Amino acid sequence: MVAAGAVVVTVVAYLVFRTEGAADSSDAAAFRFFDRVRDWVDANRDSSPFFLYGFNYVRLGVRLLVDGVYGALTGLGFAGLVAAVAAIGAVLAGWRTGLLALGGFLAFGVLGLWEQSVDTLVLTVSAVLLSVLIGVPLGILAARVRWVGATLRPVLDVMQIMPTFAYLAPMTLLFLIGEPAAVIATMIYAVPATIRITALGISEVSPTAVEAATALGSTRWQLLGKVRLPMARTTIALAVNQTIMLALSMVVITALIDAPGLGQNIVSALQRVNVGAAFDAGLAIVILAVVLDRITTNAARRTRVHRTARQRRLRWVGAGVALAVVVVAAVVRIDPDDLPGYSFAGPVNDLVGWIELHWFDVTEGLKNGISAGVLDPLETVLVTTPWWLFVAAVAAFGTLISGWRAALIAALASAGIAGLGLWQHSMQTLATVLVAIVLTMTIGVAVGVFCARHDRLATGIRPLLDAAQTMPSFVYLLPAVALFGASRFTAIVAAVIFAVPPVVRLVERGLRDVPPTVVEAALSAGSTPRQLLWKVQLPMARGGLLLAANQGIVMVLAMVVVGGLVGAGALGYDVVAGFSQRELFGRGLAAGLAIVLLGIVLDRLTQGFHHTKGPRR
Amino acid sequence: MRTLRTAAAAALIVTLTACGGATSGAGEDEPSAGAKGTVNLAINPWVGYEANAAVIAHLLEKKMGYTVEKKDLKEEIAWQGFETGEVDAIVENWGHPDLKKTYIEDKKVAVEVGPTGNQGTIGWYVPQWMADKYPDITDWKNLNKYADLFKTSESKGKGQFLAGDPSFVTNDEALVSNLKLNYTVVYSGSEAAIIKAAQQASAQTKPLLFYFYEPQWLFAQEKYVRVKLPEYKEGCDADTKKVACDYPDYVLDKIASKKFADANSTAYQFIKNFTWSNDDQNLVSDYITNQGMSAEKAAEKWVTEHEATWKPWIPAGS
Q: Cα(B296)–Cα(A380) distance, rounded to whole angstroms?
């Protein structure tokens, strides 16, 4: 009743107060402020103590770390590094994973991308080392000290939603061009996952175990070192795994500030409009991601298994043999150029060329239909809504859905967007983002449900999901532009490809976690498969579905800026332009913040569904 | 190289702690002050630039014995590199009076090193088939007549004008409003996106009006025709909001860091001497993009075939 009233009031208010939707000013106070900060840093880099004793040392330290990791990895030589990775995989995660690692790393040589792959690995490993060094202690603190956790949460939110492009330019301002800035930018993107998952692991340690240890007279440090950390070991391994995946998706973008590696190949292939060449490099990244993912997940899984003394001894023998193999391989120098080479560039270019030529009419019709039918009307409504009405609506509906606390934050965030002076662009971006989220959820839930019901399909589709998630979006942007033109819809397509995989995974896991006894009970009570899905499985998997929606929102927002590169305009373009042009620096940074604020609004408005039990009437 | 640098960085940290702070140059490669050192070339993200840089790097390395470090950077960030000593030279600069003012006049960390010999043209283009089918479309006065052809899902009921990479100099929005054209400027957001759109406009014979420039390798594949805007006159683009004239022709030039120029090495003199024609650059760009050569291979091929062109660039006594 209240909800219906709120809807009616909002609609009437919109019809009365709707505006023309004037363009954003090119010179807002927020832009000027960021420009002034930039000028100050430029002028004081070699004189201010902040730099002389702070940032410049951070840069030097990270430089040392990168050079150290580089020395360690390249010192082994081609054969040595391949053998070492395979050995680590075999010892920690089983011989199957070892074989996978062996094949994967050899593939870098076959693709002719060995050096670039190693450079990418060096940056990833450096960023992950830093993330773990900083993230794990912070995660423990966040779990154990209430106020630390509470303070960190919003900071981590900002770090995760803030588009990478928006902080690349400030990174070069503080840490100059090159590897240190790249590693730090990557770390900023990846460390929230380390902190969050570690905190989760520590806080989930069973209180009975802690009580028992306390009763036996453990000190606080003993509790941490002997009880909490060992019991949270698998979760911390998951944290490392997620950190690696996030870092890998970021190091590609840092090619734009002269970080070496596969990203450089992708960026230069993009300039030459050579999708095939970008595909080779993209494939190398997917392989690297899969190898690192399998090693860390399988290693984490194996730590749970308890071994007999004999098995343990066998393991030591295995490790010894592996070490010997690595040493031999490191001594035998093999040049990766000696491997037979293969490139997918030719076939991929032919295929993409054919698709671009023949599918165009269909894809253009699809784009025009969705743009005119859904996107334009939604955008018109959002853009012509006066900002105060939008804030009021967010507050009202937020209170109904998520309670007054979340509503207050959401309303403040939307007022903040207005304050940044980018209202029109934010509303245009919001329209695109909403359509992308709806499409992502529709596709993701449908595929997730299918996967949960058909085991074979799920196994078949998993590598595809892995690839879609780790393949850098730059690779498939150009075919998308060819098919859909430089448009908002192209941005939506890119966002959907990127965001669907995690949604599918979370939905599938949610459905599979429904206790089998419940399913059996429903079946024996005579439920049809359809009833089982709608009345039992989906409602019971509510938690998983909501987490999926939340992740979908975050991932779609992360692609807003990439959308700016392919004609979506609005905030994404502002960020890209701010990165490219000196006069637009402040505006770009403001646009990055506006994206964060949009993320906070969406997150707070949806989080209410987590807490309310059952649908409201 | 790397291990040396690590040791140097470590030593720097130690010594600098003793004597008060690290400056922005600390721990980075020193620019080549003396002869036969390393030259740090910025590589801006377009193929024509890469052609210049590839030939310069090839000659510096193979004929003059220097080491060349190529750094892939966007223009803005490359200029920042002059200040920190990470970049010695930019070898194809399109105008950028604002950057020149900041880094050459105010900060005095960079200097102009003369033209590259390439003439840059920026303008509005349509695919060749449109110029054939609608001969009068190449005059801006007729653009409104054809606005309906250019409608897309993004253009809000008007004709679409597709603008380019945000780092390029553009006056398109001002032009559309000051010339009272019934068009909306849509930002493609990247050079790659605009090239792809242009290729599709030719392949699918779809209408497209877009921002483009020469020298550009795409012209070796497809023909595009420039739309005449009101003629450029000195100063007609002074107020960016009131521009109602075409883009000027750009004399593309080279910029070097002050330190690199002051050292006056043979590498600097060589870069100063470097000039070539649009045809030369298009040829090397064509090798790189349409014939699938690496930049290094393309430069090598051009150098073996054009000795008479590059011989005079090499300073005496090197």
A: 51
Residues 6+ apart with CB under 8 A from B59: B270, B303, B310, B313, B314
If one counts the domains in chain B, the total is: 2
Range of the domain at B264: 24-119+251-313
Tell me the CATH number at B219: 3.40.190.100
Question: Quick check: is B14 in a domain?
Answer: no
Cβ-based contacts of A253 with chain B (< 8 Å): none
Residues 6 or more apart whose CB falls under 8 angstroms from that of A341 comprise A110, A111, A112
Res A408 pLDDT > 60: yes
**Same domain, residue pair B132 and B58:** no
What whole-number distance in Å separates Cα of residue B187 and Cα of residue B198?
14
B22, A477: Cβ pair inside 8 Å? no
- The span from the CA of A307 to the CA of A313, in Å, is 10
Helix H, strand E, coil C: the string for A572-595 is HHHHHHHHHCHHHHHHHHHHHHHH
Helix boundaries (H) for A513-584: 516-524, 529-531, 538-540, 542-558, 560-564, 570-580
Cα of first residue to Cα of last residue in chain A, in angstroms, is 8
Residue type, A64: L
Q: Choose one of B194, B214, B249: the last residue of a domain.
A: B249
Query: What gap in Å lies between CA A79 and CA A294, rounded to an integer?
Result: 21
Neighbours of A141 (CB within 10 A): 17
Residue numbers of B between 41 and 100 with CB closer than 8 Å to A: 45-47, 50, 71-77, 80-81, 83-84, 86, 98-99
B11 touches chain A (CB under 8 A): no
Q: Are residues B190 and B236 in the same domain?
A: yes
The dihedral region occupied by B67, where left means phi > 0, alpha psi between -120 and 50, and beta the remainder, is beta
Contacts for B316 with CB less than 8 Å, ≥ 6 apart: none
In a domain, B18, yes or no: no
CA distance A383 to chain B (A): 13
Q: Distance of CA B296 to CAs A5, B45, B75, B284, Å?
A: 69, 16, 22, 10
> How many other CB atoms are found less than 10 A from the CB of residue A345?
19
On the CB side of A502, CA atoms within 13 Å amount to 20
Among all residues of chain A, which has the CA nearest to that of B187? A567
Residue that terminates a domain, selected from B229, B249, B269: B249
| A-B contacts (CB, under 8 Å) | 190
Nearest to A452 by CA among A394, A522, A532, A391: A532
Exposed, middle or buried: residue A590 (CB in 10 Å: 0-12, 13-18, 19+)? Answer: buried
Cα gap A352→A366, rounded to integer Å = 19
**Per-position pLDDT tens, chain B of length 318:** 444 455 555 555 554 444 556 666 555 554 444 446 889 999 988 888 999 999 999 999 998 989 999 888 888 888 988 988 889 999 999 888 888 988 999 889 999 999 999 988 889 999 999 999 999 999 988 899 898 899 888 888 888 999 877 777 788 888 999 999 999 999 888 888 888 899 889 988 889 999 998 888 888 778 899 999 998 888 888 887 888 888 888 899 999 999 999 988 899 999 999 999 988 998 898 888 878 788 899 999 999 999 999 999 998 876
Q: Model ipTM?
A: 0.77
How close A376 comes to chain B (CA, Å)?
A: 9
CATH number of the domain at B49, please.
3.40.190.10
User: Do B103 and A42 form a contact (C-beta atoms < 8 A)?
Assistant: no
| B3–A485 C-beta distance less than 8 A | no
Can you list the domains of chain A with their CATH numbers? 55-336 (1.10.3720.10), 359-611 (1.10.3720.10)
Strand, coil or helix: B126: strand
What percent of chain A is predicted at pLDDT more than 90? 12
Q: Is residue B318 part of a domain?
A: no
